[in-house]
Write a structure and sequence with these properties.
With about 230 residues, the chain is α/β, with parallel strands linked by helices. Helix content is about 50%, strand content about 15%. The strands form 2 sheets. A 5-stranded parallel sheet has the order 2-6-1-7-8, with helices on both faces. A hairpin with a 2-residue loop joins strand 3 and strand 4. The structure holds cytidine-5'-diphosphate. Cytidine-5'-diphosphate binds next to helix 1, helix 2, helix 4 and helix 8.
């Protein structure tokens, strides 16, 4: 049966496998996949390169806000771009991960990203992952999933992913970063990470991707008869 025109919102803690799951769903259902975290990471790269955040994570909010007006951050063939420069590889580094959560607390940054994300929502048939997709960006999304897993498994998975891309990381540093981001993301004032009341929790600590797809297909059949 045909998959209906819906928005699937996937939120959850750092490195719970949201983007891997979302990409597979997009492929399977012929949906568009959108990685909201890539935009926060892109703003962070821009802020670092232009001196709007220092090593102590002090942010020049007025300066950054003004510069955002001219920032051409968008998705293209290979992921995230600033103008015609593909930034996909750089934004996945630990250096960006260490500054992204402070940057994502800035309400002006969230407005900038939200405006871009909501443009895509008009078309439906999208799966988007992040921290506030089901609560703030698309509160009316037809299916909301909240992902979680133990910190140990998350750190292991993320370290393996970074090593495969050639970044030599220590598991302790990855774990520290995940926990710091979870804390900042859950405690910020604007759109904190939290489970939407109508989101379904998926703890994938002991699940494979195939298990997750079985889980999802059961939900799709129950909810949408497909
Ligand atoms: O891949 P991972 O789960 O580690 O993170 P991400 O999805 O790339 O997001 C990076 C960071 O951006 C998060 O830790 C949040 O601080 C921020 N973010 C957010 O605040 N709201 C979103 N919708 C998505 C990401």
């Amino acid at each position: 049966m045909q998959i209906p025109d819906i928005i699937i919102a996937i939120d959850g803690y750092s490195s719970t496998g949201k983007s891997s799951f979302a990409k597979i769903i997009a492929n399977e259902f012929s949906f568009l996949y959108l990685d909201s975290g890539a935009l926060y990471r892109g703003v962070t790269l821009f802020a670092i390169e232009n001196g709007f955040i220092n090593d102590e994570c002090v942010i020049d909010v007025p300066g950054l806000e003004q510069a955002l007006a001219d920032l051409d951050l968008h998705f293209g063939a290979e992921g995230a771009y600033i103008g015609d420069r593909c930034i996909e590889k750089e934004i996945r580094s630990l250096a960006i991960a260490e500054k992204v959560s402070p940057i994502a607390t800035v309400p002006q940054v969230r407005d900038f990203v939200d405006r871009k994300l909501r443009e895509f929502g008009k078309k439906k048939r999208i799966v988007m992952d992040g921290r506030d997709i089901g609560t703030t960006v698309f509160p009316d999304a037809e299916l909301k999933i909240f992902m979680t897993a133990t910190p140990e498994i998350r750190a292991e998975r993320r370290a393996a992913e970074m090593r495969a891309k050639g970044e030599d990381v220590k598991i302790e540093d990855v774990m520290k970063n995940l926990l710091e981001r979870d804390y900042i993301d859950s405690h910020r004032e604007t759109s904190p990470l939290s489970k939407a009341d109508d989101a379904i929790v998926l703890d994938n600590t002991d699940m494979t991707m195939a298990d997750q797809m079985v889980w999802l297909k059961e939900i799709m059949a129950e909810r949408f008869g497909c």
